[in-house]
Amino acid sequence: MTQKIKILSVNQAGERGRKFPVDRLVLNENGIEGDAHAGTVRQVSMFDVAEAERFYRITGAKALEYGQFAENILFEAKQKFEVKIFDLFQKGDVLLEVTQKGKPFHDEFREPGNYVMPREGIFCRVKNGGVLKAGDEMEYVPKVFRARIITLSDRASKGIYEDRSGPAITRILEEQFQKIGWRLQTENKVIADDEQQLKVLLQESLNEGYDLVVTTGGTGIGPRDITPEVMRPFITKEIPGIIEMIRWKFGLEKPAALVSRALAGVNGTTLMFALPGSVKAVKEYTGEIGKHLQHLFYMVHGVDLH
Q1: What's phi and psi for 290, nearest 5 deg?
Q2: Mean pLDDT for the stretch of residues 105-109
Q3: pTM beyond cutoff 0.70
Q4: I want to staple 257 with a disulfide (CB 3.0 to 4.6 A). Which of 3, 14, 195, 250 is the partner?
Q5: Which pLDDT score, from 0 to 100, does residue 114 have?
């Protein structure tokens, strides 16, 4: 849910440490002109004034000074919101993307037994530049990941039996995203084992900017199994290691699993997976893939949290 925040002060400094109020921030693809954090994925630091005031109440420290928490932007919000990586802050053409929640502490910003900045500081990178000033309002836009799950089955597409593999993938993905605290919107499609239908859906998914595309079915060696061949041209970089690990892990107990031609890769910032068609297999594959999804999204978006 979007909401407005108001900028109370804009601050910068050419060296790391506390920052000082300025008339405006000029932002470009490298960050804030003249600021020490330009050129990193943590180009712009933001801090909620409510957290600063809470800190001063707890510690009894001196009155708030703009930039004292090393923030570029001190803002106030009507209600507290839980910021996640990839969320956006926007004002006109200016667009900031959250790349980190929490930042290195400074000894003077200390609560008894705790630190305020590692928990509440927000780091962003500039997606689109411009100018920000005190008094400006920005819109906070939470990132909602979109996943499209495509089941390939001649019989399920005709209603001969109910698709259970697609919904199984959906349930597991929802559980995994909930576990890491990310928001997810899913869409399920059922089509025949048809090359042209799959091509259309894959291209549409890329054009519409889906974050995740998962197919189920068509990864065997039968005459109607065409999914890997159709998906592979849509992938710009394959991720073979994940699939090979899964094949060997479950193939040790059930050699038939080694016949699967499952596929994983990426196109831009869209992760793409072609999984087997059985419910048991998609549970195994999706469960293992889910362990790596967060890291994969960081990588394709160029977010380095080390």
Answers
A1: -60, -30
A2: 51
A3: yes
A4: 250
A5: 45
